[in-house]
Structures are given as C-alpha cells and as structure tokens.
## 1
Amino acid sequence: MTLTVILLVAFSIVLDVIGQLCFKLGLDRLPELEGGFRLGAFWGQVFNAPLLWCGIGAYVIEFFVWLEALSRAPLSLLFPAAALAYCGVVLAGKLFLGETVSRRRWMGTLVITAGVMLVCVGHA
C-alpha cells in the first residue's frame, strides 16, 4: 500500500468513527416524545438535530475519500483495512461516551486488528 492509500483509508476510518459518534450523541440528545413513538414528530426532531447532520456530513465526505482510495488500490485490500473502523468505534465509545466494553469485545477488537494486519502485510 502506498502512503497515499494508507492516508486515504485512515481518513475514511476517522470519518466513519466521527459519523457514528455524531449519530449516537445526536440521537441521545433528542428530547423524549410524549405519548409514545410518533414517526412524524421523530423525523421533525431528526431534521433539526445538528449532530445528526454532522454525522451525515462526515459520511458524505467519507464516500468521496473512499472512492479515491478505491481508484488507487484493490478492494480486496481496502475493505478488510476499513474494518478498523469497528475497532475505532469501540475505542471511541469507551473514551467519548463512557461505554462499558467487556473483555470479550476487546478481544474481538484485537482479533479484527490482527486480521487487518495479516491482510495488509500480505499486500506489502
């Protein structure tokens, strides 16, 4: 993998993690609806939630970054590397949201990281 591809994939992963954090924080900050779930009121809240729009913006930028990465490297290399976004989301959930992460989840995260390393080293 070239340095440019590594930076593109890393940027894509960061944008994915930022998008997920924005979605979670944005939804958690929505006020509860009285009288149960009402789809129309929910969508009204969603359209007025700045953090949700930031998450959407991060995903739009990520889409174009990902296309650029795809134009430079094989999908069979990039897609496994993009799995590091799962690891980033687990870490961000712990650090920024104060989520409890079980030992089993940390182990799974390490297995994903090791798998990505195996795939990427094989393409070096």
## 2
Amino acid sequence: MEQIGYGEHIAETVKNIPYEAAIQTENIAAQLAGTFALPYEQAKALTNVKLKRMADKGEIERLQKGVYCQVKQTVFGRVTPSIDQVMKKTLTEQNGAKIGYESGAFLMNRLGLTTLIPRDMEITTNRYGAKLPKDCHIKLKKPAAPVTDDNWKYLQFIDLTMALADAHIDAEKPELLLTGYAKRQELDGLTLLFTARRHYPAKVILPLIDLLMEVNNELTSG
C-alpha cells in the first residue's frame, strides 16, 4: 500500500505542474522525500519508475533524462508544449531558486534594443554543460559567477552591457532603454559595480559607470 501511496503522490504532483513548465525528476523526488520522510536516493528511484510508467502510457512526454513535459489530448490529437519553453524553465530555475537568465540577442530583442529576431534563445545558466533535446533552439552560456537569486539581475545587466559593442543595435536611444530596464529591475548601483569588479574584466567598469550616471540623471530630472 505504501508503494501505491508514493505513486499517487507523484501523479498528483505531476498533475499540478503547469502545462509549459518542466516536470523534473529531482524536484518531484525532493517533494516525495520531504512528504514521506524518505532518503532522497530512494525517493528518486521511486520517482524515476513512476515517471517512466506515465511516459510509457502517454500521460507525459520524456524530453531527456530526468525531464518530462505535460501532454494534452485535443480534437487534433496529442500535443505537448514548446520544447524551448520547457527547457528554459529547467535552465533558469531549480527548486524555485534562480540558476540562469535570458541573455544575448534574444534579450536585446525583447528589450527593444534590436529588431533582429535570433533563431536561438541564449540562456546563461549554471547548467551550461547540459545536453539539450535535438529540436531545442537554445544556446547555453557559462555565467561569470554561479547564478543565484541575489545576483542574477546584476550578472544579466552586466552581460547585456558588455554585449552591446558587438551587437546589431538599431534602437535610437539604447541608453534610455537600458536605464529603464535597470530601474524596473531595481538594481543597486554599488552592488552592480562591486559585482562587475569581482567577476568581470576591468574594461566593463567604465561603461557601467556611464550608464549609472544616465540612470541618476533620469531619476533627478523626473
């Protein structure tokens, strides 16, 4: 009966995961271990067996080892969410904590710095060595420092600043877009500079100071 209880718990956990979110073995195993006071390795083994059975029945879809996605039955047949969106979740979050962020031309396009739409989404992540599904349009980049909840916004902004020099930027006033983004992200100027000094080449400091002055001018003029 205990085995059935474990399986039911795993199935219910999977059921409550949003359609476009990744179903990750490690996350479900951690929940199972906490709920039933099991050793993590035992919980992981139970989770692996249950998720494989669910995938074999067509209830979920396996994307790669340890990663699955939801399946919907529609009038047009069996459908699954975008592989890119599902994998983005696994590369940017782990157990609710940040481990990565959008970067490169993909982020520049989203912020309006360029009208070019890149074919691949770039993700800077602690899992930069991960093997991705063959149909996935994501490029992985190693972060300058391990990504955390506390530093990801700062690392992302510094990466963005460094990438501008070699990027195709067609916005009329990219500095205003960057300062606006810094304000929305509520970046602290000193923390930004300390992060840059600790993890990046010295040449990035001056452009950051110039941008921070732009932010300060925007705030005082507003």
